[in-house]
Amino acid sequence: MIFAPLSLGLVLLPFVSAAVHDVQVGGAGGKLEYSPEAISAQPGDQVVFHFHAKNHTVTQSSFANPCGLKDGGFESGFMPVPVNQTDNLPTYTITINDTQPVWVFCRQAANTPASHCGQGMVFAVNCGLDGAPNSFTNFKKSALAIGASLSAAAASPTGAPAAQWTTAAYGGLTIPAAPQVTPVTQTITLGSEVWTTTYNSYPGSPGPTPAAAQGVVHRVVVGGPGKLAFDPPSISAQPRDTVVFEFHQKNHTVTQSSFADPCRKLNGGFDSDFVPVPDNVTSDWPTWSLVVNDTAPLWAYCRQKTPASHCGAGMVFAINAVENSERNFTAFQNVAKALNGTAAAQNTAPTTTPANGAISVRMGGAGFALAVAAVVASFF
Ligand SMILES: *[C@@H]1O[C@H](CO)[C@@H](O)[C@H](O)[C@H]1NC(C)=O
Ligand SMILES: *[C@@H]1O[C@H](CO)[C@@H](O)[C@H](O)[C@H]1NC(C)=O
Ligand SMILES: *[C@@H]1O[C@H](CO)[C@@H](O)[C@H](O)[C@H]1NC(C)=O
Ligand SMILES: *[C@@H]1O[C@H](CO)[C@@H](O)[C@H](O)[C@H]1NC(C)=O
Ligand SMILES: *[C@@H]1O[C@H](CO)[C@@H](O)[C@H](O)[C@H]1NC(C)=O
Ligand SMILES: *[C@@H]1O[C@H](CO)[C@@H](O)[C@H](O)[C@H]1NC(C)=O
Ligand SMILES: *[C@@H]1O[C@H](CO)[C@@H](O)[C@H](O)[C@H]1NC(C)=O
Ligand SMILES: *[C@@H]1O[C@H](CO)[C@@H](O)[C@H](O)[C@H]1NC(C)=O
């Protein structure tokens, strides 16, 4: 059999060495764009970004959140280049590992009307074709929409941002916008103690002053015979408070996640690891403790997937969920069920939840030192 030269070429293609793709970042007239804006690349290929004048970054984001750093994503850092520098431009190189889309934005002036991303400075590798839901056009459109809402917020007298709904990382679910957060530094005086705290303030957030200087202790029961739940499932707590998770029957975890991604571990988040409790245990429950450092909502779940996803069955927990907002506890639990539950779990009516059923007890004289000891496990 004789091969035509063309088919010979195709046969040899897999042995061709990895390609290098050059992308210009910024450039003449201080334009805010990557050029080209979208490329396709094979696993093993390299993309070399050349930074022109101004002060840009190459930062990985996600399709769902074009102007936000992806958890664990790559990031070039800021690359300031003077206007008169036209050669020896700094570069940053990424290697393409697979055929999945890679989304990129410039982090300069993030979350302000001057946001480079919000002005359309985005880039993609292996995105969908035009017409596909994950096309470059749609990605850039949503970056520009973020820019427009940042400008609108700056122009509005209250500074209230237009709500931005996003799409979940998987499962195609729509996620309500996160509240606008303002970091506040405040000096707190409580009895004879004075300290300075920095916390995140947002509509509906609790105050930064704990009920006692040492904080209070909230007890939360994890699991139990026939129960895939945290009890109470939702509490409010202040900085310095301690949450003591008391593990009952089965084999559960308390693992930090995020509102938009309830059943996957948050990068750098807390995790108790699995705490198996045999059926015949009736006292001396093992515990695991967490100190609350901020007023911002904390989202958590049970990581157990055997025999079925506990998180998908609704085994989630929240601290400081804002009940009168779209991001209330029930909404969080519904996201978990929708993303990780079985079809049956998805059809379950939402359970009602007390806003704050926490059992709170004042901590004794152990004081703030207790707060540093994150793990108080007393395994049987
Ligand atoms: C580059 O931008 C970052 C972030 O805005 C800023 O912190 C840094 O000072 C800038 N560098 C120069 C040299 O302008
Ligand atoms: C750019 O301008 C600065 C300040 O005017 C000067 O110090 C520097 O040498 C110039 N650099 C180049 C590459 O011309
Ligand atoms: C490819 O994998 C390396 C090593 O894990 C990682 O540093 C890099 O960011 C990955 N590249 C992309 C485009 O995700
Ligand atoms: C607890 O669950 C984890 C994850 O499913 C498993 O690896 C571990 O063996 C279990 N421990 C016990 C004692 O059942
Ligand atoms: C529970 O049962 C195991 C094995 O049957 C036994 O070794 C253990 O002592 C029992 N524990 C309690 C608290 O009764
Ligand atoms: C609070 O800070 C302590 C000490 O840095 C840390 O161990 C703990 O995980 C933090 N709490 C949360 C909820 O992140
Ligand atoms: C939830 O589903 C995601 C995507 O399939 C998976 O990565 C994750 O491990 C699941 N988590 C749990 C606790 O079921
Ligand atoms: C709480 O969440 C539920 C479920 O998503 C939603 O129907 C309800 O409107 C939310 N409550 C508020 C006050 O937004």
Automatic annotation (TrEMBL):
Annotated source species:
Lyophyllum shimeji
The family database entries (CDD domains) matched by this protein are listed as: Cupredoxin
Q: Where are the transmembrane segments?
A: none
Keyword line: Signal
Name of the featured protein: Cupredoxin
Q: Which residues form the signal peptide?
A: 1-18
Q: Which InterPro entries match?
A: Cupredoxin, Ser-rich/MCO-related
